[in-house]
């Protein structure tokens, strides 16, 4: 049986088996019916909103403003970039500093502490995984190499106290040298190979206490070298049959493997939604990812300051649109604490004004806290 067939067959097993015990606690049904937790009932709108926002900061030292927001319960996590890391021991010390600030928070669920440890040139931490996804996919045993990379990434992040890896990239590149392939960030042009490698990476990493993130749904493999969503709008006019049989196949395999998070792209896919980028589209997040593919884990946006969505408003305004579309975690990665503050304020205001559905907000919040409690 091919990887394609196995992924499709296993998709229906999410509600049962080993992965279901974890993912079931994150699903819409169980959370929607759960009784309110006393500590959540006492949270302010800003604290409730903050639990869904990931902050970033400049340089090697987290600013006092970020530490204060964490202690006040108005930040759900932090993403680390190269400029934040000078050595493994240094970033381990920073992580402990953030955790100490979090000890004063009214929310006990651990912070989401994440980075992009994909392999190859996209590594924020020194060390494993050394091989790029392309090198893994073109090796003599891609599955084994991907599993080794997942283990290496998991051990590396766990060693400094992080708990989320924004990897693996599951885009299936179409042309040599295109957006994904230029930096070796795609396993293969063969969707079966990409599916096998992604599942192997996830299955090896997550038992080490590091949640994996499959990205960028429903896939950026068709993007040309000039179609960079960080810089401007991107439309990928891929036929629906190709999108589902090629681009989404690796995500189906990742879901079957129990991946904890999925990051959406900021590209527009006319075959699914002719107007809205993936992460702002209820049709893609709620329809394609949640209902059609039965994903019950946590959704996370790509960078809110990306050029691809600038026409839709400020990062804070886009966060409200993303939350309305069904995104659980909002990623502020401009290395500016004020971006996160503005996003929290916008979400809190939208919640109070009921521009965001309070019931759906609660479901997303509980899903995020369930993930955090499990790490």
Distance linking N and C termini: 34 Å
The level 1 CATH classification is: Alpha Beta
Strand content: 5-15%
Number of helices: 16
Q: Within the CATH hierarchy, at the fold level, what is the topology? A: TIM Barrel
Give the name of the CATH superfamily: Glycoside hydrolase, family 3, N-terminal domain
Q: Pairing-aware structural class of the strands and helices?
A: alpha/beta
**Number of domains as seen in the coordinates:** 1
* Mean pLDDT reading: 92
The low-confidence parts are 1-36
Q: Over all CA atoms, what is the radius of gyration?
A: 19 Å
Principal-axes geometry comes out as globular
Sketch the topology as an H/E string, one letter per element. HHHHHEHEHEEEHHEHEHHEHEHEHH
Main beta sheet, described? 8 strands, parallel
Detailed description of the structure:
With 375 residues, this protein is an alpha/beta fold. It is built from 16 helices and ten strands. It has an eight-stranded parallel beta sheet. Helix 9 (142-160) runs parallel beside helix 10. It is globular and about 50 Å long.
Features:
375 residues, 10 strands, TIM Barrel, alpha/beta, eight-stranded parallel beta sheet, 16 helices, two-stranded antiparallel sheet
């Amino acid at each position: 049986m091919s990887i394609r067939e196995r992924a499709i067959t296993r998709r229906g097993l999410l509600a049962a088996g080993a992965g279901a015990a974890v993912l079931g606690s994150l699903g819409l049904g169980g959370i929607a019916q759960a009784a309110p937790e006393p500590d959540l009932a006492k949270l302010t709108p800003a604290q409730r909103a903050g639990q869904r926002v990931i902050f970033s900061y400049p340089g090697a030292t987290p600013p006092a403003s970020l530490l204060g927001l964490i202690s006040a319960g108005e930040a759900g996590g932090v993403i680390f970039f190269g400029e934040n890391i000078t050595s493994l021991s240094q970033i381990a010390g920073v992580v402990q500093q953030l955790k100490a600030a979090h000890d004063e928070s009214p929310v006990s669920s651990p912070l989401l502490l994440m980075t992009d440890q994909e392999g190859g040139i996209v590594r924020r931490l020194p060390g494993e995984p050394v091989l790029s996804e392309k090198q893994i996919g073109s090796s003599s045993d891609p599955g084994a190499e991907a599993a080794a990379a997942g283990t290496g990434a998991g051990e590396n992040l766990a060693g400094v106290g992080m708990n989320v890896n924004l990897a693996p990239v599951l885009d299936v590149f179409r042309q040599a040298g295109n957006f994904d392939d230029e930096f070796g960030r795609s396993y293969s042009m063969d969707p079966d190979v990409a599916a096998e490698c992604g599942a192997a990476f996830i299955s090896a990493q997550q038992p080490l206490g590091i949640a994996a993130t499959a990205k960028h749904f429903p896939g950026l493999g068709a993007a040309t070298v000039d179609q960079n969503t960080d810089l401007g709008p991107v439309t990928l006019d891929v036929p629906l049959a190709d999108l589902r049989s090629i681009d989404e196949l690796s995500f189906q395999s990742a879901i079957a493997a129990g991946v904890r998070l999925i990051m959406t792209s900021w590209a527009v896919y006319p075959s699914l939604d002719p107007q809205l980028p993936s992460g702002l589209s209820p049709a893609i997040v709620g329809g394609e990812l949640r209902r059609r593919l039965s994903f019950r884990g946590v959704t996370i946006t790509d960078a809110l300051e990306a050029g691809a969505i600038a026409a839709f408003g400020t990062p804070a305004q886009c966060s409200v649109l993303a939350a309305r579309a069904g995104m659980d975690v909002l990623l502020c990665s401009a290395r500016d604490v004020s971006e996160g503050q503005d996003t929290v304020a916008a979400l809190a205001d939208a919640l109070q004004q009921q521009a965001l559905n309070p019931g759906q907000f609660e479901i997303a919040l509980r899903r995020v806290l369930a993930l955090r409690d499990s790490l």
